[in-house]
Amino acid sequence: MLEREDTITLIDEDGEEQDFFIVDELTVEGNKYAVLLSLEEMEESIEDEEDEGDEGEAVILKYVFDENGKEILADIEDDEEWEKVANAWEEMLSQENS
Questions:
Q1: For residue 3, what pLDDT band results from cuts at 50, 70 and 90?
Q2: Burial classification of residue 94, based on how many CB atoms lie within 10 Å of its CB (0-12 exposed, 13-18 middle, 19 or more buried)
């Protein structure tokens, strides 16, 4: 298993735990978001030489506050909001790679 400092465990709608690596965090229009990759998918791509360089699909979640004021990660419900965040992250990546 990969050992990373920036990992979190999330519980899906079926109650299953899944570990994620926090790839990046960004702010778009005053809201904070986390870009995550599944550790399981990352490990599988490392072990499978055919998929070298393909680390799996990124998950983007929004930081929100629950009813107790605790910061949590939640799905982005609005398609337009998700597109803005995905485009902002892709733009950041292209700037880093150029």
A1: very low
A2: exposed
